[in-house]
Each structure stands twice: as C-alpha cells, then as structure tokens.
Write a structure and sequence with these properties.
Largest sheet of chain B: 2 strands, antiparallel
Shape of chain B: globular
Distance between the termini of chain C: 15 Å
Strand content of chain C: 15-25%
Distance between the termini of chain B: 8 Å
Largest sheet of chain C: 6 strands, mixed
Number of strands of chain B: 2
Radius of gyration of chain B: 24 Å
Strand order of the largest sheet of chain C: 16-23-13-22-20-21
Structural class of chain C: alpha+beta
Oligomer: heterotrimer
Strand content of chain B: under 5%
C-alpha cells in the first residue's frame, strides 16, 4: 500500500474513534445516553459502523486501487494477503480491500435505504390501522398476516423472476416492501394504546386533523421502539442482500457488494480462501454492530433494572 | 369457548394460505419467460411452443387458469413441474422430507444448545464467561449462514475430510447398508448443514433465553426462594427456568420462517436436495406450477408453526385463551 | 477412506458398524461407479433429451446401430464399431443396408427389430418431436424394413459423412412401447422417467434432482458388463461436484474446468486425472443486426472494422490462462481442439493500441467520461450468458475490464437459459457468450451456426464466399481437400469477426483410480463405462 491510502485509513480509524468519544461526552448529560454508552459491544459497534461508513464515503481516498481494475489477470490472480494487497487479490486480480471499501457503499447503502422504505411503509400502515380501527384495521392486519406467512426470501425469489438483472433501485424497493410487516404491527399496537390517552383526546377536541394527531402526537411517543426496530432491521436487510447476491439474484458485477464477493470467492474456496473469507467476516462484523447498537438502544430507551 | 377459539384460529390460518396461493399464482404468471427450457443450441419451434402452451392450458386467460388451478387443487392435483419432469406433488413429496429433516435437526440443535447457553449466560451474568460468550453469540447470530456453511465446508470437508461437503447420503454405498449403517450415513451428511443452521439459530435463542431468565430471576418468587436459602443452582434450574420455558414454545413455532429462509441458502451451499434448493431452480426455470406449490407449502408450514405455538401456549397458560377470544 | 474418528462424529460410529456388514458381491462382476454432474435430466427418452447428463445415461441404456471408435472418424465408416448392427454394406452409393444382431433384446424381453429402426428414424425426423438431430438427418431420404433384422437407409445424395449421419445421431427406441404415446407428449411422457432400453444397463430408479441408478444387464448380448451398478448423482453446480470428488463421495466427473479444481482432484488420494481431447469451445457471438430489429444493421457490430477492433482489444491468451490455466488454448476459429481442422489459421492479433486507433478511425472518439461515442451515441452494448456458468461469468468480467481500457462500455447480463433462448431466437440481443459442445465433425457445427439461413444463425452474419467454401468442404470426398476448403473458410470468418473465439478447453476428467480399463471416448466421455471394471482386490464398500 502506498502512503495516501494508509494515511486515509488511519484517518478514518481516528475519525471513527473520535466521533464516538465526542458522542460519549454529549451523551453524559442524559440517562439513556449514559446507559447506551455503558453497553460496551454497542460502543464498539458504533466505532465499526462509523469506520466502514467513513471508509465507504471516502472510498476513492481510502481504497488503494480502483475496485474494478484488473492489473494482472495472469500474474496477480488470487495472490494471498501482502503489504501491497492487505487482504489479497481475487480471481480477476482486483484488490480485495479496495473492493470491500467500495462494496460498503452498496451493502450499507442498500441496508439503510431498504430499511428507510420498510420503516416508512410500516409506520404509515401501522399508524393508519391503529388510528382508524374498524374494517381498515382488519384489512391491513390481514394483509400483514399474509405477508408474514411467506418467508421473506421466498417472496424475494418470486419477485426476482420479474427481472433478469435486478436494478439496484428495485432491489432496495423489494427489500423494503417485504420488510415492513412487523414494524406495522408494532406501530399499530403503540397507536392503539396511545389513542385513548388524554393528550390525544385533547388534540382531537381542539379540532386537529387525524394526520396531524398522528404525526405530532402519536408517532413521537412511539419513536423509541421504531428506532430500535429500524436499527435491528438494517443488519437483517444486509444479511438478506448478501444471501440474494450469493444465490446470484442480487447486486450484479462489476459493482462490488459484500455478498457478491463471498459468492465470487466460493469457486476458489480451497485455493484462495481469503477471497470469500474477508467479505463474509466484514458482513458479520457490520451486522453484529447493528445488532449490538440495537440492543443497547432498546436498553437505553426502556430501562429495566435487570438489564442495567 | 376453547373449541370455538381453535376453529377460528384454524380458519384464519387456512384463509392466509389461500391468499398466499392466489397472490403467488397471479404474480408468477405475469412474469416474463417461458416454462419450456430448450437448450441454447436447439431452439424450440414456435409451433411446438404454442402446442405445449395449449396442451398445458397456458394460452388461456389467467382467470380461467386460476379457476382450473383451484379446482385441481381441491382434488390434490397441483399441476406438472416442467423443469423436473414430474408432478408438483411428486416434486414436493421428494423434497419436503429432506427439508424437514434438515430444519427439524437444526431446530433441535437451536433450542437445545440455545437453552443451555442461555442458562449458562444468565447464571454467570456480567462475569467473564457471560461477557465472552455473549459477544460470541452476538457474532454467530450476525454471521451470514451461507458463509458459515462455506467456512465449515472448507475446514471439515475440504481440509480435514471429516465430513462430506454435501448431499443427504452416499449414493452407491447407502443402498447397500443395513439399517444402522444407513442411519449413520445420513447423520454423517446431516451434521454440517444442520450445525450451520442450528448454530446461528442457537445464538439467537441463547440471547433470548438469557434475557428471559434474567427477568425471571428478578421476580418476587425467585427472591423468596433465595431468601429461603435455596441454592442458586436450584433457583435457576428449577424456579426460574421453568417459568421461562413457556416463551420457548412460541419461539420454536415462530422460528420456521427463519429455518426455511436459512434452508434456501444452506441447501444451495450443501447441495441438499430439499425444497429451498428446488425453489431457487423453479424460479430460474419460471416453473409456474412448482413455484405456486412451494409458496403454498412454505406458507402452510409457517402458518401451522405459529398455530401450533399458539395452541401449545394457550394450553399451557389458560389466560391467553380467554384474552384471545 | 476418510472416516476418521472425530469429536463430532455422530455419524462415524454407526457407520463403522454398518460398513463391516454391508454388501455381499464378490468376484469380477461387482463394482459401483458414482458419476457426479450438474446436468439433471428432465427426460431420458432419446429423441427429446436436452442435456449431456441425459446423453451420458442413454449411452448405457440404448444402442446405436454402430458407435464411433476412439478416433471418432466421421468420414466413411472406418473405425466404426458394431453395436445393434453386426455388419453393414452399401448396395449402391446411396443405399446403406444394416444387419441387426438377432440376439438383441429390449429389457422387457421383446426382440429388437428393423421396425424399431424405421420407427426411430421417423421419430427423430418428426417436427413435433423436435429432436436436436433433426437437422442432421435431412439428407436421408428414407429408412425401410427389408426383413425383421435388416434395415435399409436411402440417401438423397452421395456425401462423405453419410454413414456418420445415419448411425451417430440416432439411438434406436422401442416401437412397441412408444408407438401408442402421442408424439406431442413425448417431452413429458412417463417413459422418459423410467425408460426400457436395449443397452448394457437396465434402468432401476431415478429421483429428480438427486440420484439415478442403473444395473448391469447380465444377459447383454455383447457381453456382461463388469461394473454391477452405475449411479448418477445430480448436484447444484460444479463447485459442489468437485467437492464430492475431493471427499470421495463420487468416483467420476467429466470436466474439472478450472486449474483450482484440477489441482484439488490431483491431490485427492484414490483419484486419477484423465485428459481427453477437448470437444467444446467458448466464444462471443456478435449480432450484426440491430438488437430486436433484424432489418437494420447493429450500430456497433454492423461495422466489420469495429468488430475487428473489438477482437483485437482482447488479450484472449491471458483470459484463457486466467480462467483455465494451462488447460486451454485460444481457438483459431469457431472450432474445438478435436476437430481435424484445428490448425494454424490466421487470427486477429491482440493489439489494444491498434484497436483504439481503428475505433477512432471509424468515428468512435473518446469522451470525457472515458468511453467512446459517435454522433453522441456511446459505444456500449450488452453481453448475455447463462447465469449458471462460472467460466462465462469470469470471461464476462475480464472482457468488461479490457474493453473499458479502450473506451468500450460493456454491460454484463447473466440470464436464465430459457430467456437466453428467447432472446436469441427473437434477435433481441447485442452479443451472447456461448459454449458450444460439438459433434465430432465441423460439418454439422459450423454449417448450423454460421451459414446463411441456418437454424442457429443468430449473428445474421452473411458471407457468400464463406458459404460456398463450407459447402465444398462438406461435400468433397477427400479429407485433405476438405481441410483446405475449411482453412480458406476459416480465414474469411476470422477476418470478418462475427464472433470472438475465446477458449477451447482441454477436457480433464477425474476417475477413481480403483477402476481399471478406463477409456474415455472423445465424443462421449462415459460411453465406454460398460467396458470398465474394478479388480476384485480393489473393491471398496460401495462396490460390494
């Protein structure tokens, strides 16, 4: 590795660490903030997530090579990790570390955007069902029942049949549209329980529209569980994206995604295990970070003495 | 009251499966591509394709095909799976047992290992064992199952040669073996895929179980038991564990979607001839009838799983039944 | 055996108990060979089979009139081995008479007769059946029955590969079992899932997507096969298949492919590598007509100079080494290694600077984004290929990067096989990355692919000189003369570049070393499995 990417890499590490310390300082003021930072795996999770996010955003600086470049398809094929190629090269002689850095853009991006879609749909439908009650509620919740009856990967496989090469935007939409069912149940339950509270009645009494009541009064109160479920969902979506890419239905080359990198490496598992080992490990680390952060957030929002 | 509740619950389950079948049927028929698979160096005559479409009723409007499909369904006829050269029923009958075997073994591993780990974690809460194992379970819980499968294949099949890298038995040898030999051969093949799927599940169960146990340990009756001088081991194993077992029943019933999802990927890694691998192939081949059949079976499994969980839970705790009606 | 006792050996203990008491077969006629393949057959009825997996199995279940020898000569009948026919003679230059072996029986006991031969020919030629061999049988005028053991073939003309056409394309199938089955239903006929043949092996059982078992016909008239059982195991892909070889789960695999796989098989104790002449080649076929509109020339591939430039931009040798190591050659035309016309024909050199100049001279100039364009149209196209092929996937990635370096934007589009076929027949594609698994003779392969109006003429590339030379090459009687015509024809197609010839892999099979007398016939590697044997002292558990 040359100087620039090394400096950029160290920079990204310091940035990730520094931001965490800054957050920790700010969080000291609130009880939930302190509880969150008492959760050590979550602190490490935030560091890891920040690191990969910074690296992905600054990919051109951090990556030592062009992720699509094939500098020596005969001479540099499947070379083991070395100083020049810290994680080795793949079957096409591309640098695995550079592909990991760029792949983070796709993998993290898909995870975040799909979760955003899922949360938007789930919150809307849950809130509407819980607020409207009656037949609208029944209809929407039966829809959720049907959605939950088919394992998500089967739904995605069937949807994939419509596209030969699935565009990234469609993949995000599909992952999002198959992931809102539990969120909508959660939000519905929250809405139902909050609906009878005096402050909601008061808001309605002064003539606030249902939309306003939902957005201004009900949702903020239900925010904590929504955030927790969103954070946990990002990891889940990333695993699904990786699985689909592994089956060959997900992100298509030359765009690197961590899932396709594992799949690409499968054919030379015995010859060059690093080609699929490192991308798989990265997925595991990042998903683990999301899960740890989700756990810590849940504890922070909902303090129970047993968990403290 | 209990009977009515059960009947309503079953009717709802059936309605869900019906909805899934209908939606899948329509959706998959709108997908592009033909279910006939000629090789690239040998095109099918357009006339032949038209004839095949006619023969299998694929030239009819979707409405007509759908009604006919439902009629056949009522007679237990799920159609013909072109991509496999057999009826959908036969295709499902050959693959479901293998998927159930894999998922069932993985589930037992998941619950058994998860329960033990959960108890250990809770008993050692916040001590070194707990911290290390908690982080480990969190990691395994987050690992992509297919990647774990690849790693296990690399270590135990390619490198150490302890286990075969795939399939359900050793063709050629299996047929010659006596009963126990066949059992052994199957177990030998089952070990890696079931371990892959079971480990990931067990990590989740252990995390859940730890939290549940810790919550129970904080309750009044446990404190009373402790105050009475009952030994800690007994407090955990008898008093606390018994109370946190109930949620485990639900967990088992609800882990079917997870197991089926895992099986799609794991069956592909291990060339396990189950329903998950068949689903992937059927989608690629645009095998309408087979895809609809798999969707129906998968949703029926999930719905049955949650139904059984509900019923068991209700049987164990009558308050639930009252509330649900 | 690899069954070491391990901590997790929940299977090993009962297995050890099981092994000691399994099997009872002793002597010369034992043995089980497990073939592993990713080609799961959907039917075994010979005229409608559609993959090499089915072909390998049918080789053991059914008989041709005669089989090619190890030389796979296709001109005349020298080297051909009697199977169903004991002998044959030419009554006149256009009439070929076959005398069937009167001992031949279908596995249900019914004798094989000349009626079956005539029935088979009729079926193979029937457009409803749509057999792959149909186009190769067009020069045969009729097949008639002289008596129950004598079948007469009449040809429309006299030509060098007449004998080959008469016997090679067709397995004889039982009239008494198939005459009643409507031809429209053959693709899905029950017979295809449990066939009754007349070959050295009988069909026992098949579980689609899992396994298939054949057992030796101890009364087979050409001699009892030594191997008692042949088992096929169907797996998801080549990675898993090679894994089975490495872990001793299977005995034989036809094509190892990548150097990594070959290396793994070489290191596996009890496995032998068996190289045999390469019968396939991989190439990129360029559609010279516009994508979806065959009345217009293709904006990129319609220009001969651009096609040449695109070919020159690719380092075909390096790509071949990357994917196949030393186990492949860059073919000098649309030909596999084993065709007699494999020769030092002129091909376009690798010259990326020259390619860039040539592209610029045709008006494709570099834009700021690094890609070329002409009249504000980007030099961009899509390459389609079957999503299951690892080698094609690798080639697509390699070509994409190499073309990018001269400003060409190539899109990768892996597709399901049936969708590829849709696109090819409707002309809705730019370029397709294909593998061609060939017959022993260029007479069918090249004619069916590259001449005007041919059934698989997807490139729509037309060159009258080429067509004329091919016709001469396939009709001239002298092999030497024929080769000269072929060479001239290849020079034309190479210069015009309607396709880019990428790789002609060596075939390397792996077969368990306990098996003796292993011979692989180049045109059909497992065809001679019925002559293999396992010496009594080398039998392992699954052989007994």
């Amino acid at each position: 590795m040359t100087t620039r990417p090394t400096i950029a890499l160290v920079g990204a590490l310091i940035l990730a660490m520094g931001v965490v310390e800054l957050l920790r300082l700010r969080a000291r003021r609130s009880g939930s903030g302190r509880r969150f930072f008492a959760h050590r795996p979550a602190v490490w999770g935030v560091r890891i997530l920040l690191f990969f996010t910074v690296a992905a955003l600054l990919a051109p600086l951090v990556a030592p090579y062009d992720p699509a470049a094939q500098p020596g398809i005969v001479t540099l094929q499947n070379t083991p990790p070395s100083w020049a190629h810290p994680l080795g090269t793949d079957a096409y002689s591309s640098d695995i570390w550079s592909r990991l850095v760029y792949g983070g853009r796709v993998s993290l991006g898909v995870g975040l955007l799909a979760t955003l879609v899922a949360m938007t749909v789930g919150v809307t439908i849950g809130a509407v069902a819980g607020y409207a009650r009656g037949w609208i509620d029944s209809l929407l919740m039966r829809l959720v029942d049907v959605g939950l009856a088919v394992p998500r990967i089967f739904m995605l496989l069937f949807a994939v049949a419509y596209w030969n090469r699935i565009p990234l935007s469609i993949l995000v939409l599909l992952l999002g549209l198959t992931g809102w069912f539990t969120t909508s149940r959660l939000v519905r339950a929250e809405t139902l329980s909050l609906r009878g509270r005096p402050f909601v009645d008061a808001a309605r009494a002064i003539g606030a529209s249902p939309t306003r009541v939902l957005i201004r009064h009900l949702l903020p109160s239900a925010l904590a569980p929504i955030i927790v479920s969103a954070v946990l969902s990002v990891g889940n979506v990333m695993l699904l994206e990786a699985g689909l890419s592994f089956l060959g239905f997900g992100v298509q080359p030359p765009t690197p995604s961590w899932g396709t990198m594992v799949a690409d490496g499968q054919a030379q598992l015995a010859l060059a295990p690093w080609t699929s080992f490192f991308p798989g490990l990265t997925i595991a680390l990042v998903v683990m970070s999301w899960n740890a952060v989700g756990d810590a957030l849940r504890d922070a929002f909902d303090p129970r003495p047993e968990h403290a | 009251m209990g009977g009515v509740w059960l009947i309503r619950r079953i009717a709802a389950a059936a309605a869900i499966v019906f909805a899934v079948v209908s939606i899948t049927f329509v959706a998959i028929h709108l997908a592009p591509g033909s279910p006939f698979l000629p090789p690239p160096d040998r095109p099918l005559d357009t006339a032949v394709v038209a004839r095949l479409n006619r023969q299998f009723g694929l030239d009819q409007p979707i409405r007509v095909q759908y009604v006919r499909y439902l009629k056949n369904l009522a007679h237990g006829n799920l159609g013909y799976a072109f991509s496999r050269g057999q009826t959908v029923r036969a295709a499902l009958a050959t693959t479901i047992p293998d998927t159930l075997l894999l998922a069932g073994t993985a589930l037992s591993l998941d619950l058994g290992l998860g329960l033990i780990l959960g108890v250990v974690l809770a008993a050692r809460a916040r001590r070194a064992t707990d911290v290390i194992l908690s982080n480990l379970t969190l990691f395994i819980y987050s690992v992509p199952a297919f990647w774990l499968g690849l790693v296990l294949v690399f270590v135990f099949a390619d490198w150490l040669h302890w286990f075969p890298g795939g399939f359900t038995n050793t063709p050629g040898l299996y047929e010659n073996l006596p009963f126990f030999g066949q059992l052994g051969d199957r177990l030998h093949h089952l070990a890696l895929p079931a371990l892959t799927l079971g480990l990931v599940g067990a990590a989740g169960t252990a995390r859940y179980q730890r939290a549940a146990l810790l919550e129970t340990l904080g309750r009044e009756f446990v404190r009373t038991a402790r105050a009475k001088g009952v030994r800690e081991r007994r407090v955990i194993l008898v008093h606390a564990l018994r109370n946190s077992l109930l949620p485990l029943i639900t967990l088992a019933g609800l882990s079917l979607p997870f197991l089926l999802t895992g099986s799609v990927l794991i069956e592909s890694v291990f060339s396990w001839p189950g329903m998950g691998r068949m689903a992937t192939d059927a989608v690629l081949a645009r095998d309408h009838a087979l895809v609809s059949g798999i969707a129906m079976v998968a949703s029926a499994m999930v719905v049955t799983g949650s139904l059984v969980a509900d019923v068991l839970y209700a049987a164990a705790d009558p308050r639930i039944r009252e509330r649900a009606t | 055996m690899n069954f070491r006792v391990s901590l997790l050996a929940i299977g090993a203990l009962p297995l050890a108990l099981g092994c000691s008491s399994s099997g009872s077969c002793k002597g010369d006629y034992c043995g089980t060979v497990v073939f592993v393949t990713a080609n799961n057959p959907k039917t075994l009825l010979p005229p409608v089979i559609d993959n090499t997996g089915a072909r390998d199995i049918d080789e053991q279940l059914f008989l041709r009139l005669a089989d090619p020898g190890m030389t796979t000569n296709t001109i005349g009948d020298s080297g051909w081995v009697p199977r169903l026919a004991t002998r044959w003679e030419w009554d006149d230059p256009k009439t070929l008479v076959f005398h069937l072996d009167p001992r031949a029986r279908w596995h249900d006991g019914v004798p094989v007769t000349a009626n079956d031969v005539a029935f088979s020919f009729d079926a193979y030629r029937d457009p409803v059946v749509n057999s792959a061999a149909r186009n190769s049988l067009t020069k045969i005028a009729s097949v008639t029955v002289r008596d129950s053991v004598t079948a007469v073939f009449r040809f429309k003309e006299q030509y060098p590969t007449a004998f080959y056409d008469a016997v090679y394309q067709m397995w004889v199938i039982p009239q008494h079992l198939l005459a009643q089955v409507p031809r429209t239903d053959w693709l899905t006929a029950a017979y295809g899932m449990h066939p009754i043949g007349d070959g050295p092996y009988r069909f026992v059982s098949m579980v689609p997507g899992q396994t298939l078992e054949l057992v030796a016909d101890s009364t087979f008239f050409q001699g009892r096969p030594h191997l008692r059982r042949l088992v096929w195991k169907f797996v998801t892909g080549s990675t898993v298949a090679v894994n089975d070889i490495a872990t001793g789960q299977a005995d034989a695999i036809d094509f190892l492919g990548s150097p990594a796989n070959i290396d793994l098989a070489r290191k596996t104790p009890g496995m032998s590598l068996v190289p045999y002449p390469g019968s396939n080649y991989m190439y990129l076929e360029l559609n010279t007509r516009a994508n979806g509109d065959s009345s217009e020339p293709h904006p990129v591939f319609g220009d001969r100079e651009v096609r040449r430039a695109l070919t020159m931009a690719l380092d075909r040798q390096a790509m071949s080494t990357n994917v196949f190591g030393s186990y492949s050659k860059v073919p000098p035309g649309p030909i596999p290694q084993w065709w007699p016309i494999w020769d030092s024909v002129r091909t376009l050199p690798f010259d990326s600077a020259g390619a860039a100049r040539l592209l610029a001279s045709r008006g494709w100039r570099l834009s700021a984004d690094g890609f070329r364009s002409k009249d504000s149209v980007r030099l961009s196209f899509e390459v389609i290929f079957t999503s299951t092929s690892g080698a094609r996937q690798a080639y697509a990635r390699l070509m994409q990067a190499q073309w990018k370096s001269v400003g060409v934007d190539m899109q990768i589009q892996p597709l399901d096989q049936n969708l590829i076929q849709d696109r090819l027949s409707s002309g809705k594609f730019d370029a397709v990355l294909q593998g061609f698994n060939s017959d022993p003779t260029p007479a069918s392969g090249i004619v069916q692919h590259w001449t005007r109006g041919a059934p698989d003429h997807y490139s729509h590339w037309v060159n009258d000189d080429f067509d004329r030379l091919v016709t001469q090459a396939t009709s001239v009687a002298s092999a030497k003369q024929s080769k000269l015509y072929w060479r001239a024809a290849l020079n034309i197609i190479n210069a015009d570049a309607p396709g880019i010839w990428l790789a002609a892999p060596d075939n390397v099979a792996a077969v368990a070393s306990r098996i003796a007398d292993v011979r692989l016939r180049p045109d059909s590697y497992w065809a001679l499995a019925w002559t293999w044997r396992i010496p009594a002292d080398r039998l392992i558990d699954r052989d007994r």
